[in-house]
Amino acid sequence: MLVECLMRRAIRHTPLFLGAVLLTGCLIAPHTSERSPEFRGTVLDARTRSPVEGAKVALLEDPGISCTSDASGCFQLEATRNFHLLYCLLPIHEQTAEWPVGEKYYLNTVTITHSNYVTCRKDKPEGYILGGKGIILLEGSVLLEPKD
How many domains does the chain fold into? Predict the structure, then answer.
C-alpha cells in the first residue's frame, strides 16, 4: 500500500520535476569534484639527512588542510573533495556548472614547517612528480635547513 502511494506521487510529480530541469537547466545529481590533490613525501634534515618527525605539511591556499610527518619523516596529505547537489546543463558561465560551487585550489603549493627548521615551500614546477589517480609526489626528499 505504501509503495503504491509513493509510486503515484512520483509519477504525479515527474512532469513538475522535468519542467524544472528544462526551465533552469539544472539536474539533481549529487557528485564530487577535486578541491586539492593528495601529496606524499619524506621530510629530512638537510645537514644530517635524518628524518624529521612532527613537520607540518599544509596546503598554501588553505592551511587548515594539513598533516604531520611521522617518525620516519613520511607524510601523506589527503586529497579533499567538494560535494555538489546540482549539475547545471546550461551554465551561465563556467563556475556555475555545479551547485554549490565549492572551492578549487589551483596553486598546488605546500609549505613545510617545524619549530626547529626554516620553513620550506614546494611549488609544482620545482619538484613534483604526478602519480596515478591525482596523487602528487614530492620529488626526492624535502630537505629542511635547521635554524641556527
Answer: 1
